[in-house]
Design a protein that fits this description.
Elements lengths: L1 H17 L3 H11 L13 H14 L4 E14 L4 E5 L2 E2 L6 E3 L6 E10 L7 H11 L5 E5 L7 H11 L6 E8 L16 E5 L9 E6 L2 E15 L4 E11 L4 E3 L3 E3 L2 H20 L4 E8 L7 H8 L9 E7 L9 E4 L5 H14 L5 E4 L7 H6 L4 E6 L21 H14 L1
Parallel strand pairs: 5-6, 6-7, 7-8, 11-14, 11-15, 15-18, 16-17
Antiparallel strand pairs: 1-10, 2-3, 2-9, 4-8, 5-9, 10-14, 12-13, 16-18
């Protein structure tokens, strides 16, 4: 019994010393994905509520200096009505259709003009189509499911989308693929929808839309920054980052929780902060929760190019964490092919400890907040976990389906990598 007790206490000590707390991570993801946070976007102060939560969590920690970094963005929002009805049947936003992120306010009933892909195939067929319809009452053009378009075909489609053609009151594009939304920073001239082909009756002759869009030229948002001073080399900084924002709302009924993207990375960031508050690091560690990543990496761009509160030339390495929910298929290190020595270190740690099935590498990519730092010469990796997760940029990315399959192993891998820098 004494031996068993000793083993149990030893394991408990090791777990506590390592510091990862999967229960804390789950609670954080649950909170950030709840309706109160409105998808952490730009409707009902969703991003602001999330930033306050992160600030308070960091403020609780021993040895931390915490601050906001405010800035402004241009953003198109959908806070109110979002109704699309075809032949009297209302479609469900986010599931049956999405509006273009740049969609303007649009209301009314419109006759449908069903158009085959063939009208885009040549300039002659496109010009003939425009000529035949240019004097008609404005209609909602429905483009049937499209194949992969050539450059020229995309240009003709853009002409239809531009609002230059007076007979086009709006545009609906049918798809057999997945609906994936994003954030708009401008407003288009006409409404555009992408609709699941099996949700839109082929017999439909009329569409009714009620879309309230609010464009905000200077929406105030903020990064959240925490800092813990190193015990031995305080002037050398390791930065840990994750974006906390997501897509927000598409009308009053639909919001995008953003559990994997990126409540999971935010949870990892805060969990790491807890760990280092209890285990003071030799290097100083900077924690940045970025806003406006989904709007075009704007929060990180602002930090790097407008207000680097903690200087870039002091950064020994930066680790950006996004999509941390899975991991059964390993981890990807973006910039692993750029910073080869650090990647070799990462590989060796994983080979020795067997944390994850594989550690893969990519080259340079502008796909998350590490990008602007790399452009300024900061050595950095962007980590995302690989695995089977059903949702991305859609309303199904919910906290309750997040498995955190390799969360603890990933935490340990990152922690070990930091210790080897």
């Amino acid at each position: 019994m004494k031996k068993l007790s000793f083993v149990f206490l030893s394991l408990l000590f090791i777990a506590n010393a390592f510091g990862q707390d999967i229960n804390y991570a789950r609670k954080t993801i649950d909170k950030l994905c709840s309706p109160k946070y409105n998808g952490r976007g730009y409707v009902n102060g969703g991003d602001a509520k999330a930033s306050v939560f992160i600030y308070k969590e960091l403020k609780k920690l021993k040895g931390f200096t915490v601050q906001y970094q405010p800035f402004a963005i241009a953003v198109n929002t959908f806070p109110n009505k979002m109704e699309v009805t075809a032949n009297g049947k209302e479609l469900e936003a986010g599931t049956d259709y999405i509006v273009a992120p740049e969609c303007p306010t649009a209301k009314g009933k419109h006759k449908l003009l069903w158009v085959n892909y063939n009208v885009l195939q040549s300039q002659h067929t496109y010009d003939s189509f425009v000529l035949a319809n240019k004097n008609t009452t404005p209609v909602f053009v429905v483009l049937d499911t499209l194949p992969q378009l050539s450059k020229e075909e995309r240009e003709r489609l853009k002409d239809l989308q531009s609002g230059k053609q007076s007979f086009v009151a709006g545009l609906a594009q049918l798809t057999n693929g997945k609906l994936t939304w994003s954030v708009g920073s401008v407003q288009d001239a006409i409404p555009q929808l992408t609709i699941k082909a099996d949700k839109f009756p082929r017999t439909a002759q009329e569409i009714e839309i009620k879309i309230d869009a609010v464009f905000i030229e200077r929406y105030k948002t903020q990064n959240v920054i925490g800092f813990i001073k190193g015990t031995k080399q305080p002037d050398s900084i390791i930065a840990l980052t994750a974006h906390y924002d997501h897509l927000g709302r598409m009308g009053k009924k639909t919001y995008f929780p953003g559990a994997n993207d990126n409540a999971s990375g935010t949870a990892m960031l805060l969990d790491m902060a807890k760990h280092y508050s209890k285990n003071p690091p030799e290097y100083s560690i900077l924690f940045i929760a970025f806003a406006a990543e989904e709007a075009g990496l704007i929060g990180s761009n602002y930090y790097v190019n407008a207000d680097p509160i903690y200087p870039l030339d002091k950064m020994k390495f930066l680790i950006n964490m996004d999509l941390m929910a899975t991991g059964e298929k390993g981890i990807m290190a973006v910039n692993g092919l750029v910073f080869e020595e650090e990647y070799k270190t990462l590989l060796k740690i994983n080979d020795d400890k067997k944390y994850l099935s594989t550690v893969q590498a990519r080259g340079k990519a502008a796909n998350s907040d590490h990008y602007w730092f790399a452009e300024k010469g900061v050595h950095c990796f962007f980590f995302y976990l690989m695995g089977d997760f059903p949702s991305y940029h859609d309303p199904g990315d919910k906290a309750e389906i997040v498995p955190l399959t390799k969360y603890e192993e990933t935490f340990r891998l990152i922690n070990d990598f930091i210790n080897h820098l």
